[in-house]
Every structure is written in C-alpha cells, then in structure tokens.
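Whiteboard transcription, Tuesday session. T.W. wrote the structure tokens on the left side:
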C-alpha cells in the first residue's frame, strides 16, 4: 500500500499510461494477463536461479570438489591392468652378440669337427605376450597430505564464495526492483502534474472567456502543460530502462511486460546497538568466512611446500603371465618392491616454493583484516545513512503536503480573479518538485534498508513490508 495522501489527484487513466511504457498494466492489460506479476521475493528467487554470477559461483563449487578428489587420489591404491601381444625382430649383433667369431684356441675346430654350425643368424624374430596387473600405493607423503587438506578447505571456500555471490545477486535484484518501482511512481507523479496543468489551462481559458484572465495566462498554462508532457516522456524512458535491467537480472525475457506487486512503502527501521550489528555481520557475512578459509588454504599450501623436503615412501607390485603367446610358454611372473625417495638437492626449487607460499599466507591475512574493516564500515555506513534518510522521507512528505495546500490556495485566488496564474504555475512547479523529492527520498531510504540487510549478511531475507524476514 502507498502512504496515505501520496497521489490523491490522479485520474483513472494513469495506470493505463504507465502500463504502456513500463509493463505496469492498466485494467485492460491486467485482465488480459499480458503483464507478468512479479513480487520482490520472486525477483530474488529468479535472480538466484538465472543470474550468471550465481551460476558461475555454483559451477566453481564443482571445480573445487573435483580438485579435492584429485588430491585425495594420491593416498588411494592405484591399480591398473595391461595386456600386450607383440611380434618382435631383434638384431643380436646390435646387442653385443657375435656368434660368427672364432671361439679361440682349438674350440672352434673341435666344434666344427663334430658338425656343429657356428654361424648363428644375427637377427631373430619371436612373439612376446604379457598380461599383468600393477598396484601402486603411497605409504607416506606429507606434502601430498597437506595438498589434500588444502583442497578440502578450498571446497568450503568455494561454497562460501557461492554464498557471497548469492548475497550480491539478491541485493542487485532488490535494487533493480526498487529502481523500477521508483520509476513507476515518477510516471504516476508526472501524469498527475499533467492533469493539474490541463485543469489550469481549462481554468485560464474559462477566465479569459469571461474577461478575468488574459491571453498571457493561457499561454503560460499551455507552456506549463508542454513542460509536464516532456517530463512524462523522460520518466517513461527511465522506466523502460529500469524494466529491462530488472528483467535481465531476474532471468526474464527482456521484452516481458512486468507488473510489480510490491510497492514502495515507508517502514521505519528500529535499529539495535551498533556493536550488536557488527557482531551479527561478523558472524553472518560470507566474505569473512571465505577470507578465513583462504588463510587456512594458504597455511596448508605452506605446509605442503615445506613437506617436499621430507622423504616419501611407497610400494609397488605387479603380477601376471608372460610368454610367447597366451597358450605358448606362458608362465606366472611377479614383482614386488618398495621405494624411498629422499630429496637431497633440487637447485633451490623447494625453498622458492616455501617463500612463495609464505608470502601468499601473509597476503591472505592482510586481506582478512581489510575485509573485517570493510564489513564494519558497511554496517556503520548503512546505519548512519538509514537514520538520516528516515528524517529526509518525513520531511519530504511534509513538504509535499504543504505544496498541495499552497497550490489549492493559489488556484482559489486565480479562480476568484484576485491575481493571474503565475502563482498557480509556481505552486504547481513546487508541488511537482515536492512529489519527486518524496519519491526519491523513499527510494533512497529503501535502498538504504537493502544496504543494511546486505551489510548484516541478510540480503536474501530482505522484505519491503517487514523490517527483516527471519
């Protein structure tokens, strides 16, 4: 519901004019169902489901989960199987065999006398078959263990990053919703100004007919009407832009007419203690959670870099059959062994990685402190802004009421022939400015409410009609 007395001078055709431009339908549009009703809650849900930032953040969670699984694989058994059948031809001479040379002494003659041919071929051809299962298991690798713990923390950090993105997307959807609601209100106010200008023009013509007013009064009224029509066209353009931005944010087709079901309302915001708000923000803001997890990640990365100086231990085993073919000379064979890898000197690579990891850890600690300061600044700024804008809205509403009274008096004076319509035009200008200031103040106040909810980490629970949804 709008505040009492906001737009009491509107005519029935205002909603139809607004619907043609912004998607806020008049009676015919509403009956035909051409404009899509959209509540603030539905806008938030749509943005969370379709906004690219939220979708990318969720996809990053899957990436982090894959990195965790990859890091964990270093400690699980690696079992593989291999089957091969080959036809080989080997040059024995190239392997150092020379069966055609003299055996030395009388051995060659003695073998020749027995009829043994010493001229072996230097190239032989044969078949090789091998079917084998390989098992590899790491027993100790401190560096890989720390890498796995880093990946686990990274998965939680990705989830926190997704929460940050969702909060930001929800706040953006709320701000775009308020922008369109404000633009719609500006259109209604501009139409009300036109109605008053048309009434003034009619009065000026009637007064001129009876000889009370002059042609100058009519011209002045026509000029005022032209200015108001130009302002209405400008408001329509702004509303069209706001509608397109909102549609894009919440994932609607950009040409969809939109009818907002939640209106701008003035809800005084009871503020608790600043220390309580800061404590709430420190406990709820996903940015701080993510910053803490980044520190943990960097700590494990540093431990992993230092752990590369430690030895690693593993075992390997293989079992299978080998022969010429699966059915020829095939015999079971196996191999079992353990490996101990001790790094001695790597040219300073490990030291370089340790220094880099230590620097990354220090940077994350600096970022965490800065994030804390930023969160506290957000809370304090939103509170101060909300307090001042509360007074501004009240003053703007009072100013609009006074402007309406001033216009009524000036119209009576002109109608009674006491003065010309200069006072009426000036009063209409003052009322138009007062309406615009009230709408702007209300929109700014609502944006401040959104910013406070975001500062407390509760943008997704924001409601126009309640101080804060649970």
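and on the right, the sequence the group agreed on:
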């Amino acid at each position: 519901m709008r505040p009492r007395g906001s737009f009491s001078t509107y005519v029935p055709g205002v909603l139809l004019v607004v619907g043609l431009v912004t998607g806020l339908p008049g009676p015919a549009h509403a009956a035909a169902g051409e404009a899509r009703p959209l509540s603030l809650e539905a806008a938030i849900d749509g943005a969370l489901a379709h906004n690219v930032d939220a979708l990318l953040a969720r996809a990053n969670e899957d990436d982090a989960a894959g990195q965790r699984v990859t890091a964990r694989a270093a400690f699980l058994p690696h079992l593989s199987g291999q089957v091969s059948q080959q036809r080989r031809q080997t040059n024995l001479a190239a392997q150092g065999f020379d069966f055609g040379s003299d055996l030395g002494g009388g051995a060659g003659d003695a073998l020749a006398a027995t009829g043994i041919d010493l001229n072996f071929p230097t190239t032989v051809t044969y078949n090789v078959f091998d079917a084998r299962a390989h098992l590899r298991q790491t027993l100790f690798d401190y560096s890989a263990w720390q890498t796995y713990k880093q990946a686990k923390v990274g998965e939680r950090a990705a989830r926190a990053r997704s929460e940050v993105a969702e909060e930001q997307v929800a706040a953006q959807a709320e701000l775009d919703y308020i922008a369109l609601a404000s633009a719609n209100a500006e259109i209604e106010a501009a139409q009300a100004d036109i109605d008053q200008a048309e009434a003034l023009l009619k009065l000026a013509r009637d007064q001129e007919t009876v000889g009370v007013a002059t042609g100058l009064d009519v011209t002045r009224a026509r000029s005022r009407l032209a200015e108001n029509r130009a302002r209405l066209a400008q408001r329509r353009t702004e509303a069209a832009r706001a509608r397109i931005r909102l549609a894009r944010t919440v994932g609607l087709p950009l040409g969809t007419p939109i009818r907002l079901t939640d209106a701008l309302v003035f809800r005084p915001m009871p503020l608790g203690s600043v220390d309580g708000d800061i404590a709430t923000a420190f406990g709820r803001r996903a940015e701080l959670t993510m910053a803490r997890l980044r520190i943990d990640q960097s700590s494990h990365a540093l431990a992993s870099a230092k752990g590369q100086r430690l030895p690693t231990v593993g075992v390997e085993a293989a079992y299978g059959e080998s022969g010429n073919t699966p059915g020829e000379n095939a015999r079971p064979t196996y191999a079992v062994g353990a490996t101990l890898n001790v790094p001695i000197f790597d040219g300073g690579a490990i030291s370089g990685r340790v220094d880099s990891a230590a620097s990354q850890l220090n940077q994350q600690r600096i970022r965490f402190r800065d994030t804390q300061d930023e969160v506290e600044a957000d809370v304090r700024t939103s509170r101060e802004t909300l307090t001042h804008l509360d007074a501004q809205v009240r003053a703007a509403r009072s100013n609009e009421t006074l402007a309406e009274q001033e216009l009524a008096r000036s119209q009576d004076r002109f109608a009674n022939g006491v003065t010309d319509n200069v006072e009426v035009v000036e009063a209409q200008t003052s009322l138009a400015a007062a309406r615009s200031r009230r709408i702007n103040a209300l929109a700014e106040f609502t944006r401040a409410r959104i910013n406070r909810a975001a500062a407390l980490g509760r943008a997704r629970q924001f409601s126009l009609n309640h101080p804060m949804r649970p």
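Someone added at the bottom: Strands lie at 36-38, 78-91, 123-140, 258-260, 312-323, 331-341.
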